[in-house]
């Protein structure tokens, strides 16, 4: 067993963000000890040590509490629980293992009330934390840290997607402005051609000529303004 633990033991890592005291977001227990910050199903929650492990059964061995870090043992070196997603190291399982195999939580007399860690043991009530309890806390901290790292990665992907969507929307807006400016320019040119070329006012007189010149000037101004906007946007 000692050789097995040395094989699967990982060097200690910095614990995830934790808070001192509060209510567990899963079981509701009020604790004076640490609560782990966990991202679960898209929601950030504060969970006690036992609930972190209960809600992530495939992330660790329920006997030696080695954290798998998304890399569980090879199927030939593990037993899969027949009731949950837990994987137990072959060397950690009892000999001979029961068939079908049940992990420690599922094989408990009362699985619903099974706990990996007695929360009152970490409340500073004078009880010392033994080696197993320390391994449980460290395993839960690693699981929580991994969940928060995944949350950061997902947030980064979402931010990049929003930036790309915004850039695409700006491009479409610039293209729309360019099309409108082109249509107005073509309309002004067509109006001039239909009125005999030049400024088109030579063939008109009185109020008709004044109206045409004012309308043409307005169209040219609008067209030029749109062109300037397009240049500003694309610049």
Automatic annotation (TrEMBL):
**UniProt-annotated stretches for the region Disordered:** 1-20
Instruction: Report which superkingdom the organism of origin falls in.
Output: Eukaryota
Entry annotated with the keyword Metal-binding? yes
Keywords of this entry: Metal-binding, Zinc, Zinc-finger
GO molecular function terms attached to this record: zinc ion binding
Q: Which InterPro entries match?
A: Zinc_finger_PHD-type_CS (IPR019786)
Q: Which PANTHER family match?
A: PHD FINGER FAMILY PROTEIN, PHD-TYPE DOMAIN-CONTAINING PROTEIN
Q: What is this protein called?
A: Uncharacterized protein
Native species: Dipteronia dyeriana
């Amino acid at each position: 067993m000692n050789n097995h633990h040395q094989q699967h033991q990982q060097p200690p890592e910095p614990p995830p963000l934790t808070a001192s005291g509060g209510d567990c977001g899963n079981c509701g227990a009020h604790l004076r000890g640490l609560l782990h910050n966990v991202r679960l199903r898209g929601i950030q929650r504060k969970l006690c040590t036992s609930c972190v492990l209960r809600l992530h059964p495939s992330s660790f061995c329920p006997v030696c509490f080695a954290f798998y870090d998304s890399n569980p043992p090879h199927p030939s070196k593990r037993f899969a629980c027949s009731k949950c997603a837990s994987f137990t190291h072959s060397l950690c399982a009892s000999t001979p293992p029961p068939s079908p195999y049940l992990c420690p939580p599922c094989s408990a007399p009362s699985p619903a009330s099974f706990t990996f860690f007695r929360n009152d043991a970490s409340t500073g009530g004078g009880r010392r934390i033994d080696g197993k309890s320390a391994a449980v806390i460290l395993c839960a901290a690693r699981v929580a840290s991994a969940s928060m790292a995944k949350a950061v990665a997902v947030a980064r992907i979402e931010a990049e997607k929003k930036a790309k969507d915004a850039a695409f929307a700006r491009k479409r807006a610039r293209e729309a402005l360019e099309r409108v400016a082109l249509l107005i320019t073509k309309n002004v040119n067509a109006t001039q051609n239909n009125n005999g070329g030049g400024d088109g006012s030579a063939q008109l007189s009185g109020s008709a000529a004044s109206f045409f010149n004012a309308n043409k000037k307005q169209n040219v101004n609008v067209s030029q303004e749109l062109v300037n906007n397009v240049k500003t946007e694309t610049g």
